[in-house]
Amino acid sequence: MVIRLNKIRLFKNYFNYNIINKITLSALFILFLYLFGEFIDFLKNFAGYKDVSVYDYMIFLFNQYIFLVFFLDLFFLAIIKNFISKNSFSKYLILKFSNRKQLFINNIVAIAITSFLYVLIAVLIVIIQGGFNLRVSNNWTTVSSLSAKITQTEVSGYFKAVSPLVACLLNYLLTSLYILFIGIVFYVSSLYFRKTIIPFVISIGFIVIGVTAYTGSVQSAVKFSLCENAMIYSQVWASTNFLYQIGFKLIFWLITISALIALGLYRVKRVDFKFEGEK
């Protein structure tokens, strides 16, 4: 029991060391400013819609690939950059854990917690903004911001399979899994390449490929793009059962994230860690 408590305390210290810093606070502050600007723009565009709810705003915002690609994921990479740092604290952790596999799992868990908390903070900002200006009714409206801005029609029948609250929760889950995927790509890449810049380049490469596939005209490529599977709304799934769409996307993330973790486990058993100050 004492050993387990010590490891939990060690994990907490490790998490705080890597996450609670000026870079994280700066990234969150910039994110807040961006969301504030988006909300002002949203209110201007939909000033005539009296029945618009905070759920409409969240779904509208989290189903824009520009928001996902140019803000959420890039800021997240800046926040978790310390996880690939080969500093003395990382060396201390290797000595404290019984093997490198435990350290790898520790990092994956920390990145997972960070990704879900990070997206949750964005959601809370949206809720606070919308709570004072928009309706909070858990019912789909005849004309919502989603229909007016994205579909140009009434909310599709498949979308009404769940309530707005459930739709937002599912959207939060999918977005968090996308951010987690990018974070694991970043971390696993650092196990294969010693230079810090390369994991950034590889992660951004995945992001660019995802955007290219999503904005392309090949539907099969769109369905397997990262952006597509981070969103709850989809043109390519419009005629498909809503729950089937969600199931497909969850399986997509399960397979891709598991594959990355497997690559990381394979590498961590063979990698020779070098730290700052070592040749």
From TrEMBL:
Superkingdom field: Bacteria
Transmembrane portions of the chain: 20-37, 57-84, 104-128, 169-188, 200-222, 242-266
Entry keyword set: Membrane, Transmembrane, Transmembrane helix
Name listed for the protein in its UniProt record: ABC-2 family transporter protein
Source species taxonomy: Bacteria, Bacillati, Bacillota, Clostridia, Eubacteriales
